[in-house]
Amino acid sequence: MKRLILMMLLVLGGVFSSVAQQKQPTAEEVAKKNVDEMEKRLNLSATQKSVIYNYAFTLAKEQLALYKKQQASGYNDEEMTKYYKFQNETNKSIKSILKPEQIIEYDKLTEERLSGIDPNKKKKKKKGEEEDKIVGIEGLKKNN
User: I need a surface site. Which of 28, 94, 122, 127 has the fewest CB within 10 A?
Assistant: First the structure.
């Protein structure tokens, strides 16, 4: 009887731990998300979008490779420094194909990302103001 209970607990623990792990996004997903946001904010042409996607995809591959390497062997300052240099080069390359007005907006976008500001996130309401109710799946996403 004790063995049965122990086996059930082990099976349930395995199931819950596998469900709790989040799926790592692929380089394609990361690049597409970044380029879609840039397209919306910067009004990119088709050519700009294509070139920026290539830069973003390469950067995302480097980022995911670094993440996997850190998961396996731990934090490495040299690897991080190399990644940040590559990231800066990529940003310069992206800026080189943008128009001057797009560069200003790109700098704002980069600053928001670095500071953790989400332009889609709603500000908190003051006392006495009614909070917008979000229904459906969007309401669940907000709490997580």
Answer: 127
Give the closest residue to 54 by CA, choosing from 118, 97, 23.
97
- The residue ranges of every structural domain in the chain are 24-116
* Contact criterion met (CB below 8 Å) for 90 and 110: no
Please tell me which residue, 135 or 55, carries the higher pLDDT value.
55
Angle at 134 between CA 133 and CA 139, to 5 degrees: 135
**Could you report the per-residue pLDDT of 88-140, keeping only the tens digit for each?**
999 999 999 999 999 999 999 988 888 887 666 655 555 555 555 555 555 55
Q: How many angstroms separate the CA atoms of 112 and 37, rounded?
A: 12
Query: What's the number of CA atoms in the CB half-sphere (13 Å) around residue 38?
Result: 28
Alpha carbons 127 and 25: distance in angstroms, whole number: 39
